Amino acid sequence: MLSKRMEELEEVSKELLKVLLSDWADNLLRRSLDKRSQMDDKLLASQATAAQLVRELGAAEETVAKTLLDQESELQRLLQRLQDLEEELVRAREAGASLQASNSALRRELEELREESRRLEEDTEREEDTVPSTTYVTQLYYKISRIDWDYEAKPAQIKGIHYGPDIAQPIDIDGSRHSRCFISDYLWSLVPTAW
User: Fold this and answer.
1) Nearest in space to 187 (alpha carbons), one of 171, 174, 176, 175
2) CB-based contact 80:72 (threshold 8 Å)
3) Please, what sign has the CA dihedral across residues 33, 35, 38, 44?
4) DSSP, res 195
5) Which residue from 186, 185, 181 is spatially nearest to 171, judged by alpha carbons?
6) pLDDT tens digits for range 28-64
7) How many CB atoms lie within 10 A of CB 158?
8) pTM above 0.70, yes or no
9) How far is the C-alpha of 57 from the C-alpha of 42, rounded, in Å?
10) Which residue spans within 12-145 are E strands per DSSP?
11) Helix H segments across 131-162?
12) Percentage of the chain with pLDDT > 90?
């Protein structure tokens, strides 16, 4: 039995060998090799494309990273500018509040000065109403003292005419030689005591 099987196996092997050696097997093998070659070419092309895509992706990542860094730098600059502007706004508000307080104080002071000016004007008007005019005072002094003063005399010279009860008497006193007390006493001695 074993020998029969061996014979059968040997026959199958021969047939197989014939098939393999036949033209059909050769065509099949060539087609397989062509397909393998095409697959290798496609694999190499795919690897080249993948390598190109990896390079492009790396370049794109680098560009995006650079753009991102630039934008982050710009964002930091803008944030710093915003902070500076906020600080400047706070300072401006403080200065504005200070100016407003100063303005309010100046307005109060202005109102006080206006009120003071108004009161002074009212006081001046009252004084003008109550204080006699210079002419009136001069006439009153003349009626009391009966002295007509010489206003063109030198500053140290006291000159005038005293119209006493009996006669007119000239006055000519050098103020630099006599004390004020003497001059005052002398002039009062000329005023009559009997009314």
Assistant:
1) 171
2) no
3) negative
4) -
5) 186
6) 667 777 787 788 788 788 888 888 988 998 888 899 8
7) 19
8) no
9) 21
10) none
11) 134-145
12) 11
Is residue 175 within 8 A of residue 183, CB to CB? The reply is: yes
Nearest to 145 by CA among 195, 89, 191: 191
Note the residue count of the chain: 195
Q: In DSSP terms, which residues pair with 171 in a beta bridge?
A: 160
Residue 53, Cα to own-chain centre: how many angstroms?
55
Give Cα separations from 89 to 24, 85, 92, 96 (angstroms): 93, 6, 5, 10
The tens digit of pLDDT for each residue in 82-103 reads 999 999 999 988 888 888 888 8
Cα–Cα distance between 187 and 178 in angstroms, integer? Answer: 13
Assign 18 to helix, strand or coil. helix
Q: At what angle do helices 2-21 and 23-130 cross, to 10 degrees?
A: 60
Position of tokens 């009252």?
A: 126
What does each C-alpha distance from 180 to 108, 156, 183 come to in angstroms?
A: 49, 11, 5
Nearest residue to 161 via CA among 151, 175, 171, 174 = 171
The answer to whether 171 touches 159, Cβ cutoff 8 Å, is yes
Tokens of 164: 């006493």
Could you give the CA distance from residue 123 to residue 129 in angstroms, rounded to a whole number? Answer: 10
